[in-house]
Amino acid sequence: MSTSAERVYVARLAGTTVFDPIGDAVGRVRDVVILLRRSAAPVAVGLVVEVPGRRRVFLPLTRVTSIVPGQVICTGVLNLRRFKARASETLAIAELFERSVTLKDGGDKALIEDVAIEPMRGGTWAVSKLYVRKAARRKGVLGFSRRGEAVVVEIDEVTGLMRRDEVQGAHLVIQTFADHKPADLAAALMEMSPERSAEIAAALDDERLADVLEELPEDEQIALLGTLQSDRAADVLEAMDRDDAADLLGDLPAAQAQALLQLMEPEDAEQVRQLLGYEDDTAGGLMTTEPVIVGPETSVASCLSLVRKQEMPPALASMVFVVRPPLETPTGRYIGLVHLQRLLREAPHELIGSYVDPAIEPLGAQDSLAEVSRRMAAYDILALPVVDEDHRLLGAISIDDVLDHLLPRDWREHVDEHLDESEKPGVA
């Protein structure tokens, strides 16, 4: 092991680029895997490295040949199996940071803010020091304040390192992923213990948790939803896209699904029930009930403002659907769709009804997945409308809805298999 500094702090290591011996970047460090032991000092055994495709894999520290500021050098070929912490393993950033410990000297309470690891003989790394912030006393009550004194202590100068308690916050993990896509946080939750992922879920707001749930595999969705109180679970389901909420409820026992529907707002619950009435592999089962819907008298400028909304998925933002009132699904009679490119070419004051594409035929709610796929490929389009027998718009199917059903159910677990060979990390 060759390191420029004998001691490495985990917080500074996070985000560091990992290189192979010939200088090619293979990923970035996202966390450090630690073994906490009751009868011996804790040791660091590996790094969690994010590789192309946002997959997080395990890199044993025995394969790390150098850690210097700004880079980690590894040897050998990375195992691209998605990392999942074992029961005996602890993630330093996700699970140790913000943990409450007691200082033996004086008995003060403190929160862990950083962890130092040092190389030992035989290629192992020991957890040697902790950077902690002492609690501050306010009005005689012991509370944790950022104004408390920060100190570096030896690992054997604290107690309670192995004890997880309610004091440990989740906000640090949430803050770390604040600028990341929901899929990134979903991947991180899959790496954590069920208890820790439940803590993170409890601390997320409803909208963010809904976005994260939509990115998880079905079994992980069910498990995480099961950690929430029923009222909170219903609120999160309301915040999810209607088709995703219907898919999740469809995987739950009927009694549980009905109980959650009863707790949801009546309008939201009714839309989800509508989707639950269709088979999964039909247009009705695939569609969302919340595309961009406008009347024919809407101006081009107003339509552009609707598709610019940040929460609008790109595929659905590629077009607007024009209908007679009412504009809520099921709408009045469906007129047609207008492509975003056409909107960009027209004057802002023009009315949208003049630019409907007459070549795109809508789908019926009972059309099969095969028909949906064939039609989407034939039209070379990102979304298609779904209408009922009275030609009222029921919703729209986007390309991501189709791919979710065409790909294997566990496709998120095998992202690396679909990467180009040049994108896969490793050492020749």
From TrEMBL:
<dbReference type="InterPro" id="IPR046342">
    <property type="entry name" value="CBS_dom_sf"/>
</dbReference>
<dbReference type="Pfam" id="PF00571">
    <property type="entry name" value="CBS"/>
</dbReference>
<dbReference type="InterPro" id="IPR006669">
    <property type="entry name" value="MgtE_transporter"/>
</dbReference>
<protein>
    <submittedName>
        <fullName>CBS domain-containing protein</fullName>
    </submittedName>
</protein>
<dbReference type="InterPro" id="IPR006668">
    <property type="entry name" value="Mg_transptr_MgtE_intracell_dom"/>
</dbReference>
<feature type="domain" description="CBS">
    <location>
        <begin position="356"/>
        <end position="417"/>
    </location>
</feature>
<dbReference type="InterPro" id="IPR038076">
    <property type="entry name" value="MgtE_N_sf"/>
</dbReference>
<feature type="domain" description="CBS">
    <location>
        <begin position="287"/>
        <end position="354"/>
    </location>
</feature>
<dbReference type="InterPro" id="IPR000644">
    <property type="entry name" value="CBS_dom"/>
</dbReference>
<dbReference type="InterPro" id="IPR011033">
    <property type="entry name" value="PRC_barrel-like_sf"/>
</dbReference>
<dbReference type="InterPro" id="IPR058838">
    <property type="entry name" value="SH3_actinomycetes"/>
</dbReference>
<dbReference type="Pfam" id="PF26205">
    <property type="entry name" value="SH3_actinomycetes"/>
</dbReference>
<dbReference type="Pfam" id="PF03448">
    <property type="entry name" value="MgtE_N"/>
</dbReference>
<keyword id="KW-0129">CBS domain</keyword>
